[in-house]
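Dear support,

I submitted the protein below through the web form. The confirmation email said the job was done, but the results page showed an empty box. After a refresh the structure appeared. I'm attaching both so you can tell me whether what I see now is the final result or a partial one.
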Amino acid sequence: MSESDEFRKLDERRFSALWRTLTAAAKAKQEWDSARTQAVAMAREVSGAPEREILNSIEQGALEGSIGRDGVNRLFHRARVAPEIGDEMEDGMILAGYHEGKPLYARPEDAPVTMTWQQASKYASRLDASGHRDWRVPTKGELNVLYENRNKGGLKGTFNETGAQLDGWYWSSTPSPLNFLWAQRFSDGIETDSSRLNELSLRLVR
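What the results page shows now:
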């Protein structure tokens, strides 16, 4: 076997290993399409091969055709598996965690003032930020995800953890008995129902 053949097999093994890593992470976090697009884009950049050829190669489990030693090194250098909780996305959102198997993104800061429930709902419906207009008040479960991950990455130090009454509490959108709504205190994680007239802190998600 020639040296070039040996190197080509090495290229194919390394790309296959990269692809397995990406797809394993993507499957675990239900982001298969995103990982596939990312891998194809990186492979196209370093190889110049048509997208269809790369997709066929991926389906076969190896990159057909050598992309060169420098190409492989660049591919691995730029490759990223799924982002970590607390990472800031390119559009400024923060990956706050996962809820019911889906990624949950949050604003990097609270709403500018405390609000009643009606004000919070209206604020969410009108907000246009990070290129998105589908911001909403988190559900009770999503709010707890924010609490559990409050000290990770870009989320750290951005919540009101004073325990103060009432701005130390955060709105959820989940109704509680007696037509109240669930709220959570971020100093200790306690959850309780809150009158819609209370003025609480707010962190929007999407």
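Response: this is the final, complete result; the empty box was a page-load delay. The chain has two domains: 3-78, 94-194.
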